[in-house]
Amino acid sequence: MTVGLEHFLIVSAVLFVLGLYAMLSRRNAIAVLMGIELILNAANINFIAFTRYGAVNMNGQMSAVFVIVIAAAEAAVALAIVLNIYKNFHSVSVPDVDKLRD
């Protein structure tokens, strides 16, 4: 049995669905950020799989590196926002952020 493109796509779809579920069902800001990271990892698996089983060029791997860099920057900015929310409200619950408008 060899690992084919379908296997990569199934793993990527499972990661995407888990990330989407984590984003939509959690009220904790850190869990929402973890869901976003799962979705970005699913996109990375797709980029690498289509590079491996598609054309010979390296565009998929370069895109995956770009997504990893963007995810690292997003994690740094999001962590700063979450720490500021915790400093002001002593909680990292997403509905508490609505109180910032007052």
Class derived from helix and strand content:
mainly alpha
**Silhouette:** elongated
Mean pLDDT: 82
Termini gap: 60 Å
User: Could you estimate the helical fraction of the residues in percent?
Assistant: over 70%
Counting H and I runs of at least 4 residues, what is the number of helices?
Answer: 3
Contiguous runs where pLDDT drops below 50 for at least 5 residues: none
The first-level CATH class is given as: Mainly Alpha
What's this entry about, in short?
75% of the residues lie in helices and 0% in strands. The chain is mostly helical and 102 residues long.
Write the layout of secondary structure elements.
Layout: H1 5-25, H2 29-53, H3 59-89
Features:
102 residues; mainly alpha; Helix Hairpins; 3 helices
Overview of the structural elements:
The chain is mostly helical. It has a single domain (5-91), classed as Helix Hairpins, CATH 1.10.287. Helices cover 75% and strands 0% of the residues. The chain is built from three helices and no strands. The radius of gyration is 17 Å and the shape is elongated. The N and C termini lie far apart (60 Å). 11% of the residues are buried.
